[in-house]
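Revision sheet: C-alpha cells.
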Amino acid sequence: MDTKQRKQQNRATQRFQWIFYFMCVLGLCILGKALHTMLFEHEYWFAVSKRFSNEDIAITADRGELLDCKGRTMVSSVPEYELYLDINVVDKDSVAQEKAQAWRDSALVASMDSICDGLAAIFPDKKPDYFRKKLEHGIERGRKRRNMWSEKKQAYVRKPYSCRLAPGRATYIQYRDCQKLPVLREKTFKGGFHGKEIMMRKKPYGSLATRTLGIYDDSARARNGIELAYDSILRGIDGRMHRNKVRNKRVSFIDQFPESGHDLMTTIDVDIQDVAEKAIVAQMHNMREKTGATAELGMVIVMEAATGDVKALVNMSLCGDGQYYEIRNNALSDRMEPGSTFKTASIMAAIEDGRTTKTTMVQTGCGLKKMYGRNMKDVSYTSGGYGLIDVKKIMQKSSNVGVSTVIDDAYKGDPENFVKAILREGMGIPLGLPIAGAVDPLIKDPKSKHWYKTTLPWMSIGYETLLPPISTCTFYNGIANGGKMVKPRFVKAEIVDGKVVKEFPVEVLREKMCSKETLADIQEILESVVSAEKATGNRAACPQFKVSGKTGTAQIAGNKNDGGKGYSSGRHLVTFCGYFPSDAPKYTCLVAIKAIGPCGGGTSCAPVFSQIAQCVMANGVHRIAELASDSTSHYLPYVWNGNMTETVSVLKQLGINYQSTWAASTGTLWGQANDDQRTKKQITLTATPTPKNKVPDVKGMGARDAVFTLQQCGFKVKIEGAGHVVDQSIEPGSDIKKGLTVNLTMG
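Predicted:
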C-alpha cells in the first residue's frame, strides 16, 4: 500500500471516530433530557397532556328491550337527534380559522333558500320562513360572540355559538336527510352541522300498559314499573374511552367496550291488554252518558290462573279534558276497602273452620239488622228483604246481613281466629311484588286499640280492611288454580341475542288455601253467583262457557273536597272479580271502577268482565287442559244458529266432523255443538224448518243471517246492540204480516 492510500484510510477512520463521538454525545443528551423531564418536569407535562386528552369518557350501553309474552316489542331504545349548526369557527390556527369562517358565512348566505326549503320538506310542520328566521338570528348572535371580552383572560376572545335547527328531536332518517342539504353536507369542521344523539325509549303500542312497563326518562333514569324493578338487567354495563389529539385531530381510544343490556320477556299480552283497556274506558264513558255517574278511575287485572302471569294491567284515571289516561299504577299502589268481594274470604274461613256450611239457613229478615248499635243493611231492605235463606243464596244476593250474621255468630268470641283464618287462606298477606310503589294489605289486629265490637261484622263484608286490587285478584286466582295461590308475575324470562338465559319461576304463596271440600263449596257458590236466577253477577255470564265470580260495591269515605261528608259523599268502589271458564279455569279477571253516582259491581263491572272473557277466549281459542294433552280427544267449537250451508262449508275447511239431519233445500236451519266435548267426536246439526206463513225463530243467529231470513218473509228489520240475536219483537210461530218491522235485540 503506498503512502497516498494510507493517508486516505487514516482520514476515513478519523471521520468515523468523530461521527461515533457525536452520536454518543447526542445519545447522552437525549437520555439526560428524558431523565430531566421524568424527574423534574413530570407535573408540567402531565398538565399539558390533560389539555389534549379527555380520559375516562363513558360509552352508554344499549338498553335492553321489553317484550310481551309472545315476543312482540313493547319498549325499545331508538336514537333521536338534536340538530345544531355551529355559526362560529374556533381554531388555534388563526389563519385556518378565518379562512373557514369566511367560507361558512358566504356559503350560508348563498344557500339560505335551499337550506330553509330543504328543512321545511324534512320537518313539514314548519315553514321555510321559520328556519330562515332561526338561521338569520343565529348568524347575528354568532357575529356578536366573535369578539367578546373575557374577564378571566383579560382580553377579547372568540366564543363558539351553535344554532338549534329543529325545534324538537329528529329521527335518524331526518338527520340523514339534513346531511344532504347544502353546507350541512360538509364535514363538521367545514360546514358546522352536527347532531347530538340521544337514546329514547319508544313504545310501538303507544300508551298501552305504560304504567306497568314503566318510564325511562331523558335523564337516563328508570322512574317506575318494570323499567325500574329490573333496571340492573336492562341497563347493561357502560364502556369507557378516552380521546387524544393526534396530528391536530381528536382520536377516540376505547378502553372498555360497553355490554348491552339484556331483553326481558314480560307476561303482558298486547292483545289482552288492548281489549281490557278499551272495554273499561268504553264502560266508564257509558256510565256518564246513561246513568250520570262520574267514573274517576277504572282498573282491570287479567291473570293466568296456573302461573300468576299478569296478562293485562289497566289503570285509567279521569283527567281534566274528560278523557282517561294511565297516571298511576292504582291496582298495585292504592289500598281500598274491597267491599263484597271480601265476603268470599269470610265464608271460606267459616266453612273451613267448620262453623257454617253452604246449606246453613240464616235469617236475614227484612234486610235491616241492628248490630252493636249500628244498622247493617241489604240492598233489599226497602223492598222487604230476603228472609230465611241459606249461605249459598246469601252469596248470590250478596246479603250484608247474611254474611255479617254468619261471621259474627261464629267468631264474636274469638275474632283472632277469624283474622288468622283470613291470613291462612291467603287473603291480605303481603305479596312482595317487585314493582316500585306496590303496597301491602292492611288487616286489623283484634288486639289493637282500633278494634271495636262493630269491626268483625263490618270487616266480614269488606269494610275496615284495606287491600290493593291486586291482592283481591290474587286470592280469587288461587281459588281458580285449585287452591294453590301463586304470586303475581310480571317478567317471564331474561333474553340475550334471542336466547333465554334465565327464567323467572312461578312462586307459590299458599300451596293449599283450604281443604278440597271447602274449595269445591266455594267454587260452586261463585259459579252460582253468575248463573243463578236474579243473582248479582248475572251480567258477567258468557253464552259460550261458564264463569264464576263475585260482585262488590263499597262506599268510599269522602275527602276534604267533599266537605267532610264521609260515606255519604256518593263515591263508590264497584268491583267484579272472577275466573273463566269455570270447568277448567284458565284466567282470573278483576274489574273495578271508582265512581261518584249510581253504580254497582253487577251493573257496571260484570258486563266488562264478560266482554273481556269472551274476547280472550275467542282470540286464543283456548281448550280444556285435559283435551289439549290427550291426542285422542276432539275439540269442537261452538256453532251459532244461522245458515247451515255456510256452516258446513266452514266445518269442512277446518276438517271438523259433523252430522246433519237436514237437506240444503230446507233453507236456513240451526245447528249446535254437542254439550259434552270430552266424549262426542262430531257436531250434530239439527234441522228446524220454519212452517210456511209463520214467523221464523232467529234467536241465536248473527245479524246477517237474521236479517236475511226475516227479509225473505217480507219483514223490515231494525237492530239494536251488537253480537247475536237474544230477543225478537214478533214471537216465532205467529202469522206473517208482510211490511211489519221486527226489532232485534243483540247481545
